[in-house]
Specification:
By secondary structure, this protein is α+β, with helices and mostly antiparallel strands. It has helices at residues 3-20, 53-68, 98-111, 141-155, 185-197; strands at residues 41-48, 73-74, 81-91, 118-127, 131-138, 172-178, 203-205, 207-213, 221-227. A 5-stranded antiparallel β-sheet has the order 2-6-5-4-7, with helices on both faces. Strands 3-1-8-9 form a 4-stranded antiparallel β-sheet, with helices on one face. The protein is globular, with a radius of gyration of 17 Å.
Amino acid sequence: MDAYQQKQKEVIAKIEEKLKDNAVDFTTISPVENWETDDRICLTGVHILNGFIRSQITEKIIKPLWEISPEHHYYSGETMHSTIKNIRIINNPPRFSNDDIEKAKEVFAKVVPAHKMFQGFFNKLIIFPGSLNLVGVTEEELNNLILDLDQNLKAKEIMDDKIYSDPKTFFTNVTLVRFTRAVTDDFKEKVDEINKTISFANYVFDAVTLLTCNAVFEKRNIIGTWGLK
C-alpha cells in the first residue's frame, strides 16, 4: 500500500467515525419509498462496473442481504457504478441546464482520454444514513482525474454542488443498496459478517461515462463515454 492509498484509508476511517458519532458533514440523499420512479435527477460522471466483479458482488453481498431485508432497493449488475465526478446532485427540478450538459461534455471529452487507466481495490462495506456502499482504495490516478475534471469544469463556471468529507482525497465508492426504511439489526449483523471475509481481485477502471439519471441509475440518459489511455 502506497502513501496515497494510506491517505484514502484515513479518509474512509474518518467517515466511519463521523457516522458512528452522527456527525455527518457531507452530502447524503434522503430516502424515498420507490427509488426506481424517483424524479430527482443528477448530472454526473461515473465508471460503470464491468466484467465478473458484478456477479461476484451480487453473489457475495446482494443476495445474502436481500434474503434478510428484501424491502430495500438493490442495484442490479448493469446499474452498479462508481461515481468519478459529480457535477449536480439529484434534485427535482434538475439543478443543471442543457448548456451545462454541453459544457460538461466538452470537458469530459478533453480531460478523460488524457488520463491513464487505474486500479481499484474494493475491501469494505459501509452503512451510510440512506445506503450501503462498497468502498476501496485506488491508484493515485483517480485523484488526478477528479481534480483535473473539477478544475476544467470550474473554468466553464460549472461548480460541483456536492459536499465532501475531504474535498482533496477521493476513494472508490459503489452504492449497492438504497434503504426504504431503517435497517434492522439482522441486516447490520450480516454486513459485519460479510466484511470479515470480503475479497475481490484488483479492478481496472478503464472508462468514464457522463450521464443524467436518478439515484439508482434509472431514468438515465447517457451523454458520452470516454476511455482512459
